[in-house]
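Quick start: read one record
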Amino acid sequence: MVAATARPAPPTRAHDQTKNGVKASAANGVRIDVRHVSHHFALRGQHLPVLDDVSLTVEPGEFVALLGPSGCGKSTLLRLVAGLEKPAHGALHAHGEPIAGPDPSRVVVFQDPTLFPWRTVRDNVGVGPQAQRAIRGARERIDAALELVGLLAFADAFPHQLSGGMAQRAALARALVNDPQLLVLDEPFGKLDSLTRIRMQSELVRLWQSAGFSVLFVTHDVEEALYLANRVIVFSERPARIVAQVRNDAPYPRHRDDSKLVALRRDVLAQLGLDT
């Protein structure tokens, strides 16, 4: 089983392909190439290796999950892809261009929603357009993003008036208002209760299917990775190396008790040394 081997808008790009339930256009998502990337941190004058010769490609519109032990370097790889840091060795490209820093087309959603408590939900979602000095005329985009995640009725609420799941949906809306080509998600549902987490997983799949952006998603949850992703990349203990890539062609919508997903789960757990 282990092979080494898509929001009702405002849509700005055409959807021209349907595959495994994914409606997307190759123009919607960005291709990411990571080539022979190694990275380390300086700790008390010593080099602490975090990534070891990692190479991978995310195809336009693909949903890729990164899975591995806690602290192995997955989140560091996300930061490199987002352009928040530069690798010690190797290269990263987006659509063939070197990733030299952050870009509005590559949007990061972290585990904590990090909403500004003094801003309303609408004003939090509008941070991106405001930073780009494009807030004039952005009201329609902001409200469309809020409607996508089911928060338009809470546009004038403040973060302390939201549940955990609602706050995370506001963070997703803040990302989506920028019409990203790549959504970089670092355990975005890790602090949610189990029922809210399940709902948010389905919501993310719906948004991805209709918008067609590429997704790079870090999780420690095998079931979550297999429910969401087209491909699961399994990492070793730190420093992270790729030990397996699991292709998941189960059609959407997926069911968690699907025999194919159950079999893939066994394979992934074996790769993680947890098959006993």
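Residues 28-105+180-271 form a domain with the Rossmann fold fold (CATH 3.40.50.300).
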